[in-house]
Specification:
This protein is an all-alpha fold and about 350 residues long. It has helices spanning about 15-30, 30-70, 75-80, 80-115, 130-165, 175-190, 195-200, 210-220, 225-265, 275-295, 295-339; strands at about 1-5, 115-120. It is built from eleven helices and two strands. Helix 5 (about 130-165) packs antiparallel against helix 7 (about 195-200).
Length: about 350
């Protein structure tokens, strides 16, 4: 079964329509998305719960007194090596599951781009191998590009530190501002990758880097529209995320204050159900955060589709103009021959 939306990935013509239609597509098909992705969402929530418990409850309570008593960071890590390993494992597995979770949205967008409809899952939990594989590859390639960008920023930092003769912490404000400007410029230069990456996820005609090489310049021609849609999506995401993080911040602050007091000899004064409450809060936060991040993909898909549509129209116009020019030239040649 398919769910009609009345939309098309190539129908949005303005910045506002790209954002509105993108979130409309996400909201209209959220039940289908939830049905197909609930298992990966639960697994990701469990990873977030483990990370939250270690980060907010167990590690602070275990190491607060040790740090106050003068233990070094190496000694603290050695004393709690098993907890630190569990924390790193939960981070890695959680990251892998989160990418898998995003692939369900990619699957919906691919279906919508092809048929202007989103196929309803026929069972509770579905797995799109093609979308999952392409999503993992896209994230891996983007990590490589992000690493190169970070190396470029680090190189600029080292050069400026060498010129000023100071470390980054003690560098003058002008140096820090310059590094910040360089970082912003690099981010702006990489912004067209949002459109090229979405095109790679939707279409199967080109590999990731081939599409980047061929479509990056096209995306830059529509930079203002792409920038505006991405900025609008980021603002919406940050606004909602600030509300979602409030319980996490309140809980973390309360535990931090209690742990600091306990390390100085005061009673802990925290209820016995606090670890359970913390785990549940981080579990729900992880799931809600992931679906919020997934919703951001839909406006980006619409602006990517709009860029492709405009580029296609431009090619057709150039082709038609070339045909007309050739026709006029042939006509002129015939007239010259007759004369």
């Amino acid at each position: 079964m398919e769910k009609k939306t009345g939309l098309s990935l190539y129908s949005s013509t303005t910045i506002r329509s790209c954002i509105v239609d993108g979130y409309k597509l996400f909201a209209t098909n959220f039940t289908s998305l939830l049905k197909s992705s609930w298992l990966s969402a639960v697994l990701f929530g469990i990873c977030c719960s483990i990370i939250g418990l270690i980060e907010v409850i167990y590690l602070p309570r275990a190491i607060a007194s040790e740090v106050i008593n003068g233990m070094s960071a190496q000694q603290v890590i050695a004393n709690h090596q098993d907890i630190c390993i569990l924390f790193v494992v939960a981070l890695v597995i959680g990251g892998i599951i989160e990418i898998w979770l995003y692939s369900h949205s990619v699957s919906q967008i691919r279906s919508f781009a092809t048929n202007a409809t989103v196929a309803k899952p026929t069972k509770w939990f579905s797995f799109d191998k093609k979308a999952t594989w392409k999503t993992f590859k896209a994230f891996f390639f983007l990590l490589i590009i992000a690493f190169i960008a970070m190396m470029a920023v680090s190189l600029c930092t080292m050069i400026m530190s060498t010129i000023s003769g100071t470390t980054m912490e003690s560098a003058p404000t002008t140096t820090k501002v310059f590094i910040a400007i360089i970082t912003i410029i690099i981010c702006l230069v990489l912004l067209p990758l949002a459109a090229t990456t979405m095109g790679y996820l939707i279409h199967d005609d080109l590999g990731f880097f081939k599409r980047v090489l061929k479509r990056y310049r096209v995306a830059t021609k529509h930079y203002s529209q792409l920038f505006s849609v991405v900025l609008g999506g980021v603002i919406i995401t940050i606004a909602i995320m600030s509300l979602l993080t409030l319980p996490v911040i309140i809980l973390a602050t309360a535990n931090m204050q209690a742990n600091m007091g306990n390390a100085n000899g005061d009673p802990l004064n925290m209820p016995s159900y606090m670890p359970i409450l913390t785990g549940l809060i981080f579990f729900m936060f992880g799931i809600l955060k992931s679906y919020l991040n997934m919703s951001f993909l839909y406006p980006v898909a619409f602006v990517s589709g709009q860029i492709e549509k405009r580029e296609m129209e431009r090619r057709e116009a150039d082709l038609q103009a070339g045909i007309n020019t050739n026709g006029e030239n042939n006509s002129n040649n015939c007239m010259s021959t007759n004369n």
